[in-house]
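Annex B. Sample input.
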Amino acid sequence: MYRALVFVLLYCALGTGVAAGQEAAPKPARQDPAQQPTPAAGQQAAPAAPQEKLSDAERIARLQRTIDENEQRLNELKAKVDDPQGDYAKAEAEFATLDKDLEEKKKTLQKLQSEGRADEVTALQTELEDLQKRRNLTKDRFDLAIKERKTLQEQIVTLEQKLAQDREALNKLKSPPATQPAAAPGQAPTTTPAQPLAQPEVVQPAPAATTPPAPSAVTTPPAEPAQATPGAAPTEAPAKPPSKEVQEAQDEVSAKDAEAKIAEDAATDIASRIEQQRNLITQERKQLKLAREKVDIEQETQRILNEQVQKRSSEGAPQEELQQLWAKIAEARQRVRDTRAEVAKRVDQVDRYQDDLDRLQADYIDALEEAEKKREEADIAQHRLDEIRNPFAPRNLLKWAVEHGPNLVGILLGMVVLLWLSRVAEKRIVKVLVGPATGHEAVERENRAKTLVSVFHNAANLLVVIGGIFMILGEVGVTIAPLLGGAAVIGLAVAFGAQNLVRDYFSGFMILLENQYDINDVIKIGDVGGLVERITLRVTVLRGLDGTVHFIPNGQIDKVSNMTHGWSRALFEIGVAYK
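Annex B, continued. Sample output.
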């Protein structure tokens, strides 16, 4: 009767194990869109279903819900890692017990073999084989628990990083973005070159690094204005402030660049969140794989325990031993149910993570489009600023012609008028100098006037041309002060390096001042004589009797013989015969 009862119970246990072994196929995790195969060349990919763009309120609500779920998940993982009655602790304790029992029974077997007790050795060997199988399964279960614990710790780190990123994104959605300050007048806006956004990649989570706190802002007292030191070089003049149009364009470029930078940072943040989300999916799939392996191990453990119950029952084992085996079978059955529930839970968690990843990828696409749009607007504003600053742009040339053209035309007309007035003044000067004198005195005065007028004409033309050139340069926008300083330096260098030239001009001025000779006078300078055709401050031009023209620098004239100064006398040498 007892044996029949045992076999009935064994049959029920085996039936329950078989029924439990018929596990429903778990819902497969969806494939990561980033890991889906790319369509081959020439093959068009199926168009993605258009997703409605979420408002800020929907984004905040969804992000807050994700944060709450991840916080709850993080607390569950931490509780599971720190649980003293968890799978890791039970597997460790069971493996330690079985390993210790196995070592003790091996020592007992060696002792029995040395004593020659063959019957007890055979029974103990059979028991050792069963214990070895259970020990191996427990070892595999403990190895899985170790892997699961490591993956849980990695998942905790990843979840903490993900939560920090989500909270930061939530704060950015709730608070207005910080924009860069506008550029100061006369200062070019600071533009940041567009950098390619890093595509998210699946990376292994690293321990959270401790970021050093940012140094607090220290208010520094304003620097005192530097006092001019005697002998020190003068400070540069302040830069000319830009025009109103340029300032408005600079402000627009600064604002557009700030908006583009904010949009690019938002896309980069989403890319980082996508990386963390993929890490979570990878780690959750590892946990799912380990949970399924645990199911297989627990089912194998249950099968081995059932075989041991059947075997020990047929051998007439004590009731206490059978009850212990039944208790272990019940524990294994419960672990199978718990592990299956864990598998189903992890499948659902993978699906939730995948849904979050899909939404993040949609947000990433929207952020990329927004960043590209903002960057295009910033480039357009920068191009407009460059056109405004480019002096050779058609609109700037036209504007410059409208603003400066009349002034330039006026300067040129003024130069022409001054040159014409100088010619008129020359004639009046000749009349004034000649006066009403008649006879020989009138001719002398006319020659004197022509001499002075020629010098005045050259000086006036030089002054009008140089003054007009400087006025034109000033109207064009060239700073004249450095040019005047440079001209002074060049003049000083010429004075030192070309002393003969300076002496020529000084000697010419003295000749004119003392009225040593005039145009049309017949003079002799050294060994050269002839009619004075032209006098300048530098040279005197003589025409000889044979028609030869002599150019004599005034600085080389040390003696002049004027044969027509005031009056002249003709000398003839006539040979007279004695008779």
